[in-house]
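Dissemination and training. As part of the outreach component of the grant, students in the summer workshop were shown how a complex can be specified as a set of sequence lines and then modelled as a single object. The example used during the hands-on session is reproduced here so that future cohorts can follow it. Participants entered these lines:
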Amino acid sequence: MSLLELDNISTGYGHFQALFDINLRIDEGETHAVIGANGAGKSTLLRTICGLIRTDQEKVRFDGQAIGDLAPHKRVGLGISYVPEGRWVFPSLTVNENLLVGGHSRRTGLWTIDKAYETFPLLARLRKRQAYSLSGGEQQALAIARGLMSNPRLLLLDEVSLGLAPVVVEKIYESMPAIVDAGTTVLLVEQDVGQAIKFADRITCLLEGRQVLEGSPDEFSSEQIFAAYFGV
Amino acid sequence: MIWVNDVLQGILLGGLYALFAAGLSLVFGVMRLVNLAHGDFSIMAAYIALAIVGSLNINPFYTIVLVMIIMGIFGYIIQRGLFNFAMDAGPMQAILATFGIAIIIQNLLLEGFTANSKGLDAGSIENAFIRISDQVVIGWFPLITLIASVVVLLGLQIFLGRTRLGRAFRATADNQRAAQLMGIDNRHLYGMAMAFALAIVAIGGVFIGIRTTFSPSAGPLRLIFAYEAVIIGGLGSLWGTLVGGIVLGIAQVMGDHIQQGWGMLVGHFVFLAILAFRPQGLFAKQVQ
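and obtained this result:
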């Protein structure tokens, strides 16, 4: 049984349909990247999994349990953590307080405040700083660390590298092995295809809300991925 | 020296206003709800204290804890049973819902307790005072009120800064959707915020009942004073509400000193002046 199963997800915002019949299986321990151009429906997919967008109860299964219509805060309790695009750190809270709020669900496990600082050393010296005063890269690191504080079985990362300098992106990806080694299943949305391929066991490419490619990155030539990405 | 006395009385009165303003500020901060029933909730608390005093024949001071608990539970229920749904519909609907509740409370109190003014009799403490000089006199009861408001604000500060629930309040105030993604159940949290707000205003309600007489229609004026205190102090600032209450209190006492009956008018003028020249309030939160 897969950790996460999506069956024929078709969803959108009002009259706009963003996803068409998406089927996805993600196994425990897998790292899976969803790639695609702007507006391909990548973020919509993650939001359907974390509960910001609701769907039919049976269409999303997590560890065998139907959760498609469950509220986001309940999904956190089950072990799904979503690190949103745009980071959404709590600006008036300090770095340390952001992490403490990340652990609100009281799910216990490997991830503690100390472990978070160890994995993201740049945060350790910013403990007492209010999050609004952090740089974009620091906020992204904080958002990921905060997401880990609920000790998720499935971590959803949305557009980690968006708007960040390449050196900063490298730095954040340096922390990824620690997350994967902890046994956390990672589903990430990434515009940077090179980064995604390097990192993921499996990739899914979306084009205008449809799945056009799925499998291990080694199965495809860069031409195939390029074609799927742009729909040519 | 007579002005020194005015300032002192104003500060003491400010403590009472802060007790009204703190809950209002908390509710607005956490869930962006403009609660027009806040003043009527305080009067409701005074009537609950009156009913308890009537049946148990105890000093109204001893009713405070019980009134706080009753108002807190009432706050949680009305938030989860009504205001949460109104907030789902939109901010304007939410304001109208609180307005409707304000009218309902006023009329229920009218039905149950008549339109006659009532008072809570706390005994000799009401008239006890400390004489500092011939012209400067501090009443024990106003002093207790101020101390109570400082204790409440201090407690609130520690609660918001140090506890899991307090941090969840602040996280939700910052970004409600992100807070949900941390596993925070916002509907429950809003219920808790209203419970805290009404438990605090219950103290203010009992104190105002001891200080002056009250009637079922006394709520809206309390609401206005509370709002003025919040705006003067600066939205989102805890201690700002106390300073705002004190500024308003001093303005009112001095106004009454210049000409009996001018107090409220001068208070409103000071409020309008601050709104015009420093609309963010004296202690606006510096974030964002």
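The longest strand of chain A covers residues 16-26. Students were then asked to discuss how this feature might be tested experimentally.
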